[in-house]
Amino acid sequence: MTPMRTLYLDMNAFFASVEQQVQPRLRGRPVGITALDTGPHNNWAGGVVACSYEAKNAGVKGIISVREARQICPDMIFIQARHKLYARANQAIAREIDKIAEVERIRSIDELQIGLGGPTSDLNAALDLAHEIKRVMRENVGTYMRCSIGIGPNQLLAKMAGKLEKPDGLQWLAPENMPMRIAHLKPDDLPGISRGMMQRLQKSHIWGIEELYALDPRHARMIWRSVEGERFVRALQGENIPLIETSRGGYGQSKVLAPKYRSPEMAGRVGRWLTERAVSRMRRDGYCAGKFHLYISRFDQRAYQRSKTLTPSQDTRVFMNLFDRMSDSFIRDRTHATSIGINLTKIVNLKDRPGELFLPLKPGQANQNEKLSTLVDQLNRRYGQKVIQHGIQQEHLGFFDRG
Fold first, then answer.
1. Judging by beta carbons within 10 Å of its beta carbon (0-12, 13-18, 19+), is residue 56 exposed, middle or buried?
2. What CATH number does residue 364 fall under?
3. Measured between alpha carbons, how far is 151 from 169 in angstroms, rounded to an integer?
4. Cβ(314)–Cβ(251) under 8 Å?
5. Total domains in the fold of the chain
6. Over pLDDT 70: what percentage of the chain?
7. Could you read off the pLDDT of 125-182 as tens digits, one per residue?
8. What residue numbers bound the domain in which 48 lies?
9. Domain check: are 176 and 283 in the same one?
10. CB-based contact 151:127 (threshold 8 Å)
11. 138 and 192 share one domain
12. Residue 400: its pLDDT value, please?
């Protein structure tokens, strides 16, 4: 039997399940998680970004509007998303599992990857571990926190196995039951096969799972036009293909603006808030940026874009001043915005930054203003709120910010 290397845990209806766990009145009821407040004065606004299995069983599928969801399921209860609550639940799950297994990676807020090896590389032992994980979650995290678990000789097959049975499923995939175990699927049902890639496969006369599974990995490299095609097919065939660590190319923050924040002045204030958040994240990870990009989508459909190259910096005030200068003509133009985004690119690790004689800037060291920005970060983290901020800003809390 092929050794099992990965156990993949996929939480079921995670956001809605967390709400049902902390709010007993929601249990057994159809619940929809919305990006915006859908209170009594705004009960048709926004979209449903996640829902409970009760809502799914009633016919609510995918991301749809609140209006459509109400028509499909009139007794659906809408809850505004609380990402910080879901993040704490994710951390609680990881802590409990880490007591009995090796959490290799937190793949996303509702997916964990667990390493198998030694005794647990045996399929029966891996299945026993999966049952134990489910028990620990029920008893120590919450009875409504269900998950589907997939087991496989690599990350790809384990993830695919975890998608086969929901909710509360447990499946495995390996060369011993492949490709017939997934023969009912289409190639673009598999993770990593986009619509465009499906078109390339069809041009190469790869129509179904069996043809894809039998593909020569060298041919897959030609179809993908990348070594990733060879890696994908080898993993599909059961080889233990290690994940490639990716390098970070930059930091960004963007926001689709609510109506009350679309005026030039308010959009500018949101942009300053986004800039401070992005620079703080970058500084926390020890990086500096050598280029700053600003993008604003406007109601007149003319995109407003600006960029500036600079000596690599992690000083918030430097980027705030850049934002103010680059957004000035947009604000004076008086056209409302629909979204705004900033990006910090050409990043270098602080310890690798060269010195500058005339700034002055010592090699690999933060200057006084950068140290001051770090101190502000520390104070804000210590007190759990923004006790110090850089000038006038406007927080724009949304799906991934409300807590």
1. middle
2. 3.30.1490.100
3. 11
4. no
5. 3
6. 92
7. 999 999 999 999 999 999 999 999 999 999 999 999 999 999 999 999 999 999 999 9
8. 14-84
9. no
10. yes
11. yes
12. 41
Contact 298, 350 (CB under 8 A): no
In a domain, 389, yes or no: no
Kindly state whether residue 245 falls inside one of the protein's structural domains.
no
Q: Tokens 């700053």 sit at which residue?
A: 292
In a domain, 390, yes or no: no
Residue 167's contacts (CB-CB under 8 Å, 6 or more residues apart) are 12, 13, 53, 146, 148
pLDDT digits (tens, 9 = 90+) for 261-298: 899 999 999 999 999 999 998 998 899 999 999 999 88
CA-closest candidate to residue 37, choices 25, 50, 47, 26: 47
Assess if residue 395 is contained within a domain.
Answer: no
pLDDT band at 362 (very low <50, low <70, confident <90, very high): confident
Q: What is the 3-state secondary structure (H, E, C) of 203-241?
A: HCCCCCHHHHHCCCHHHHHHHHCCHHHHHHHHHHCCCCC
Q: What is the pLDDT of residues 28-38, one digit of tens each?
A: 999 999 876 55
**Most distant CA pair in the chain, distance:** 69
